């Protein structure tokens, strides 16, 4: 919540043509920001932008040291800058040129958390039993099993959770392959100390084919039930759960270095403050984890459009650079092939919050990746294999992208939001409010108030958030867990039979 002790507006860099109002401002107000004083020509809602200097029609308008759009008319200093006078410059696929690898830095582990060490060397932040249906036909069976299994698991493991979905049949080719890939990858997440895979029998996403995607060494804690082959599929499911819980009950938390954490980063329901507070703060967490030898995963490819150059400049190698350009252009082609412009974003809620173009949203969104070297780029449904910052192919949709992060191996996800959402993924999904008003209005949703960046400074806020992450990774429940908000979303890209 803005107080008289806080600044009225904020600018990121001297190169920026605009500042963002941190409180509602009136026409005629004189505002001092970044060494510049302007008298406002318009009322400026909180989170919206005003011009710090004159911008000519047709000129690029800058924020985050980069252009976020083109002025559609002359804009005078002090005017409101938004969709009425700025348009996107995005069109389609681009050619990129590799300028050289970013040099990595030596890492040193300084922090630790209490996690579950797995046989393959990975570490979970939870010891849960996950029920994954191959097809929507047995999704409700999984939910019924999870409810019944609560009594079996009570006090022995961290929980039993079923992840229903409507897919797995009437799909073809790459679309079906994506469903199978995401489910097989979820079955290998370190937070799943045991997995029950439920099949029907006649579905396109055949149980045996899905299991073949999982390495043999990872199947010792996976059980399967094919409903059409069982006299009583519910009884067979409970027997499998009892078997897994007995094994998992021997697992104990132990102290592990922060380098064992796999951190997913995501934003949703953004506002103009997201790029000033919550996303840069999450970027500091990505840098903290990768700086100690851990892994961070950045996704939402459409919300990199217009800001991909910042990530390309940090590629570890030319091979990583080429993979990132391939994934970005492939996603742009996905839009164009469906007759949609690549700039079909931001959402109405984003615009109401002050975000003008997709470039602006993207420049704010990629702040979540900090300044870490981009060490790898992976396809949707793939699992991370390297430390450092991995870019993951997935859309911006909240349910789909948080699921993709968990499938890639994230054991805890940071989710920044300026407008709020209760959504949770299979792993702890910590909501980071971009503003204190949201944090105070929705305490049941929010895990951390990034408005502290304005009150206390970035360093103090980063220290406090890292402490909170370590506590949640060590077992303290995130708000989505308290609220039992756990779900998956699968990216549907093809025809339905």
UniProtKB/TrEMBL annotation:
Ribosomal protein recorded as keyword: no
Residue ranges occupied by any SAF domain in the UniProt entry: 16-87
Domain of life: Bacteria
Keyword Nuclease: no
UniProt cross-references to SMART domains, sorted A to Z: SAF (SM00858)
Keyword terms of this UniProt record: Lyase
GO biological process, one term: D-galacturonate catabolic process
GO molecular function (one): lyase activity
InterPro entries: GD_AH_C, GD_AH_second, SAF, SAF_UxaA/GarD, UxaA_altronate/galactarate_dh
Database matches in PANTHER family: ALTRONATE DEHYDRATASE, ALTRONATE/GALACTARATE DEHYDRATASE
Family designation: Belongs to the UxaA family.
Protein's UniProt name: Altronate dehydratase family protein
Native source species: Sphingomonas tagetis
């Amino acid at each position: 919540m803005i107080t008289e002790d806080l600044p009225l507006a904020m600018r990121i860099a001297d190169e920026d043509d605009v500042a963002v109002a941190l409180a509602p401002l009136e026409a005629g107000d004189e505002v001092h920001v970044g060494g510049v004083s302007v008298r406002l020509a318009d009322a400026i809602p909180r989170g919206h932008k005003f011009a710090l200097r004159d911008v000519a029609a047709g000129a690029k308008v800058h924020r985050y040291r980069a252009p976020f759009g083109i002025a559609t008319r002359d804009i005078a200093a002090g005017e409101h800058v938004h969709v009425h006078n700025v348009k996107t410059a995005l069109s389609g696929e681009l050619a990129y040129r590799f300028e050289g690898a970013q040099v990595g830095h030596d890492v040193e582990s300084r922090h630790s958390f209490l996690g579950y060490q797995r046989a393959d060397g990975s570490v979970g932040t939870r010891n849960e039993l996950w029920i994954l249906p191959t097809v929507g036909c047995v999704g409700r069976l999984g939910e019924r099993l999870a409810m019944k299994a609560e009594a079996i698991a009570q006090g022995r493991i961290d929980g039993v959770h079923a992840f229903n979905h409507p897919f797995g049949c009437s799909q073809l080719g790459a679309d079906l392959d994506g469903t199978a890939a995401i489910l097989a990858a979820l079955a290998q997440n370190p937070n799943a100390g045991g997995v029950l895979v439920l099949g029907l029998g006649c579905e396109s996403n055949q149980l045996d084919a899905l299991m073949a995607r999982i390495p043999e060494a990872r199947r010792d804690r996976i059980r399967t039930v094919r409903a059409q082959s069982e006299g009583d599929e519910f009884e067979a499911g409970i027997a499998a759960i009892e078997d897994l819980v007995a094994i998992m009950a021997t697992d104990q938390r132990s102290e592990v270095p922060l380098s064992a954490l796999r951190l997913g980063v995501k934003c949703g329901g953004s506002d103009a403050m997201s790029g000033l507070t919550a996303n840069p703060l999450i970027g500091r967490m990505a840098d903290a984890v990768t700086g100690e030898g851990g892994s961070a995963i950045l996704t939402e490819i459409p919300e990199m459009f217009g800001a991909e150059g910042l990530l390309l400049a940090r590629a570890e190698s030319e091979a990583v650079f080429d993979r990132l350009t391939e994934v970005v252009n492939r996603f742009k082609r996905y839009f164009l092939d469906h007759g949609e412009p690549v700039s079909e974003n931001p959402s109405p809620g984003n615009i109401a919050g002050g975000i003008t173009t997709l470039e602006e949203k993207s420049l704010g969104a990629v702040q979540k990746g900090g300044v870490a070297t981009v060490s790898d780029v992976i396809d949707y449904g793939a699992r991370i294999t390297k430390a450092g910052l991995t870019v993951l192919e997935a859309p911006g949709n909240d349910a789909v992208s948080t699921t993709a992060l968990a499938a890639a191996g994230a054991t805890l996800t940071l989710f920044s939001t300026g407008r709020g959402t209760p959504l949770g993924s299979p792993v702890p999904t910590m909501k980071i409010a971009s503003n204190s008003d949201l944090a105070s209005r929705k305490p049941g949703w929010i895990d951390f108030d990034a408005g502290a960046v304005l009150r206390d400074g970035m360093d103090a806020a980063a220290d406090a958030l890292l402490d909170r992450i370590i506590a949640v990774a060590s077992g303290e429940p995130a708000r989505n867990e308290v609220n039992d908000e756990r779900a998956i979303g699968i990216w549907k890209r093809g025809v339905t039979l």
